[in-house]
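Sharing in case it's useful to others searching the archive later.

Someone asked me privately for the predicted structure of SLC44A1, so I'm posting the question and my answer publicly. Question first, with the sequence:
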Amino acid sequence: MPSLGNTVRPIEVNELNKPVSISPKENRSCRDVVFLLIFLIVIGGMCYCSYVALCYGDPFRLVYGVDSWGNVCNKKNIKIPDVPHSGRDTRGKIKLFFFDETVLSNYVIGQAITYNKPSVCVTSCPNADISSYEMLKNHTQHTGLSYCVYDYKLNGNSSDANSCTGLPISKQKSILFRCVPSTVSAAYDFLIGFIDNILNSIDENFTQKCVSDLEKTWREICYLCAVGLGVSLVIVHLMRFIAGVIIWLSMFILGAGSVGGAGLCW
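And my answer, the predicted structure tokens:
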């Protein structure tokens, strides 16, 4: 029969009597050099893509959104030639408001969002229903919030239709820094509320406590992660030379830490 390479076969008696070496082989060499080179090429490609994204991209476009004239919300923008209303300083205006609120309510998953009416960066989303341009004018005068094209002065009549949002305006909420009608956000609120109730059953105000702790200690968390990464790399490097010492020391520290932590919590 032809040889099948590493096939299953009975072990002969003389093979059992051979001494088994427990020490590392001498004169070891690097294997799978081709795949190592491929791995390094992939890492290099990822680093290059990251460099291009940081140099030529703008993550704020994804985070805060872009209005109809190319202004990124919550950022000082550069003037685009021959584009009116571009180059505006939108710092502090972190919400993207769509003049056509049906844009998101009629959205189909997997398709691009398209709309014919403008979108502008605003400080906050509408917190009340507005049914006439007179109400919109009063709302702007009392709150300082405008839902019209930049620098447009409201008249409070039908002449505002070409430069302001369509009416009526329903109460909206901010989801991912986009103003979304309350009817659309109902499913989102239900899901968030359901998850929040489950977490709060573990501890009262569990979600708020977690968010508050993260806001207060995010720097310390980043520092500890960086220290942990550095210590891990050092240990991996030392494993090549003093593997036994590292293993026994790790077991001792882990055991002592477990006992000490249990005693402290007790």
